[in-house]
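$ fold --in a.seq
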Amino acid sequence: MITQFTINLNKGEDIAERQVRRRKRFEVITMTVIFIAVVILSVFSYRQHQSVQAILNAKQAIIRDIDRKLDSLKKTGKNISKEDVLALAKLERERVLWTKKFLSLGELLPQEMALTYVEFKNNLLLLKLITTVRRDEKEFDKVKEMIDRLRASPLFFHDFVDMKLKEQHQTKVEDQTILAFSVLCSIEKGAAVRGERSAGERRSAVARAVGGG
């Protein structure tokens, strides 16, 4: 009986070719990923550039519009008097800055407390708030702590002469106590009068500045 053996002399070459193909495939995949990443970054950068350019264009348009209005005022030959400037400065200094007050109020509120209602009527600011109460806390202490915070804030309490609790009530949701209460803030009478007269005074001052009367 004759036994035959077959020897593949190209076996070593096949392994080398497979390694070369794998290396080329890896290089192609790597280059593709890099190319896609570059494209994505380029698109993102282009969009960012467009957004910045749009903002710059808008600002330049505003500046051009202001320049046109200034040129128009210069051509009319009508100047703002010293009295008008002082009147506008007084209104700016004495008016009640509600926006800053409410921003300050948002910073003063504890994390578990929320403002649910705001009303300003007859020189009175009404704030309605809601909060959770832990088992080791007392409702009155919770309310007093919040009112003390408001009183201690120079930015919020400015223009107010009094601040007091109007009402409070609590409910239970499952095992959690919910406290709702309202705080009434009395505005300074002088500030209230200034607020009522400010619109008329401002219109009068601007009318004199623009109309020359």
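$ fold --in b.seq
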Amino acid sequence: MEKIDHRPKLSLVFALVRIALLVTLKRKTSSEMNIKKLLTAFFSAVMLAAANVSAAPYAAIVINAETGEVLHEENANTRLHPAGLTKLMTLYVLFDALETGLIGLDDEVLVSNKAASESPVKLGLEAHSKIKVRYLLRASAVNGANDASTALGEGLDGSEAAFARRMNGYSKELGLSRSTWKNAHGLTEKGHLSTARDMATLFAAHMNEYPDYFNLFSRIRTHAGIRDVASSSRRMLGSIKGIQGAKYGYTRAAGFNGATYVTRGNKKVVAVIFGGRSTATMIKRMHQIIDIGLANYN
């Protein structure tokens, strides 16, 4: 099943605007009509409706991090924009490349014009400069830097397209059957989609297969070669009890997305949210679904 559009249609937007106008007109006679208030009501209705139209669909899941058992889910198989959670796939590929010797932490990557020109969040790489892989990994994992993520992909495979093919190959091996990757960073692109279920499976695989690198997802701040960077996930890391790692992402199309790995006692869960309305509401809901998942833990 393809992505479900939970947003109201444009016809509903215009209906809401029409209702607002009719209500305003009904309350005032033509002699006492206040044009300023009428326009205020009109534009308020337009803005409210537009906000509803642009709201990203919501999806969530909590799984047992060790067995994969689903403890809570809502729209977990709906294909949505992953935004910065894409970097979990990028980093999974890079960690495997490190383990198999395809690339080394101290190898230097030549920064392309494309990588340097990626939209924020950015490390601030300059075209034709060189930077070590270890710093690009830190910038991508901790800060969510888009330029660093593209540079990693190009450094491994020579081009973004070639790296995307590698991402899709690994995705298939992991059983992420409803994910398709077009880039290394997660900025919105047609066909670049994943699901809450696939992302939870991927984050659990990070801990299970590459535990030596998992500390990157728990750092509040780190040095990334050309400057220090703060974690884009720091609000989750600082507020969720037992959290061992987190990843955050946002684009207008995706909404506010988050992934967390939490251990409390002998219980280990991965929780993922797509389509939060704000960072604060996403984190509030993250707390709630983690508690639900732990309550359902066998």
